[in-house]
Structures are given as C-alpha cells and as structure tokens.
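INFO  loader      accepted 1 record
INFO  loader      residues=174
INFO  predictor   begin
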Amino acid sequence: MPNIDLERIMQHLQETGKRTFQLWLNEHSLAFIARGREYRSEFHLNPSYEIQYSLKGDLNLHYRTPEGKEKVAFVPQGSCLYQPPLVPHSPRFGADSYQLVIERVRVPGEIDRFHWFCPACDHFLHEEQYTVDDYKADPVSRAYGNFYGSEQARTCKQCGTVMPVPQEWALNVI
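INFO  predictor   done
INFO  writer      dumping tokens
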C-alpha cells in the first residue's frame, strides 16, 4: 500500500498552477486534492457523499437548503466535513488552501449537475450536466467553460443581470 505525500502534492499543484490532483480511483471511491476554489459560483449536485478535509487553509462551503436558501458551513484547517448526496454545494477556499476530497464512485448512469443562480436576485440561471467517472477529465472546468462561454446562460431571465466572467477565468488560469 503506497504512502501518499500530501505536502509534495500540494507543492506540485502550487508550482504547476493546476487545481486538482487525483490520488486514486477504484471501483468504490475516488480521492483528490483540490487547490483554491475562490472563483466558484456554481452549486454542485453530486449523487455521491463527499468527505472534505481542510489540509491547509479554511473552507467556506456554501450550500442550499431543501427550501433553496443559501447557507455557509465553515470548515477550519484541520477539520473534516461529511456532506450527504445531492446537497447543492459550492466549496470556496483561497488560492493557497487545499482540500482532500473523498467520494463514492458514481454508479453507471448517475449524473452530476452544476447550477448557477443570479448574483442580484438569486433566480436560477443555468444547469450543466456531466457524467463524472474520472476527475482527470476535469468536469468542473468543462462546466465552467460552457457557462462562462455563453452570455445567454449568464443572463438572468428574471432581472436581466449578466453574471460577469471572473478575471481568473478570462485569463484562463482556472
């Protein structure tokens, strides 16, 4: 059983500018290290549970209640959070922060959903759907590419607000 040098992986992510490093993927679980999610604005609906451990820095996990109200769970460095399946969530943490994430491998046919809401009136804006079978395919970045690449998707049908493209995305550093 191999040891995983988490410090080395965090250093690798910092040096390369990459945002994720998959630790393992087997028939039961997948695990990865994520760096900085300060730009996140979507809410991910994952059909699996998620275990998030704050390796370095703090996590503000934005989530939506069954009634649709946005709340924030604070996960300080060294703490762990268990998140049940299908809770709309948006992990946000600084560029120099790192999370260890463990999930159940998706059952064939399960779909991950990514939802965006208007920053002005909280009206639903857009949904992207992906089959997540390997984080090396970077489904989050693909969902963001589709969303930020479409002004129509970013325009609120209720109030007309257009969600801006974050500078990090426009500079292609995400």
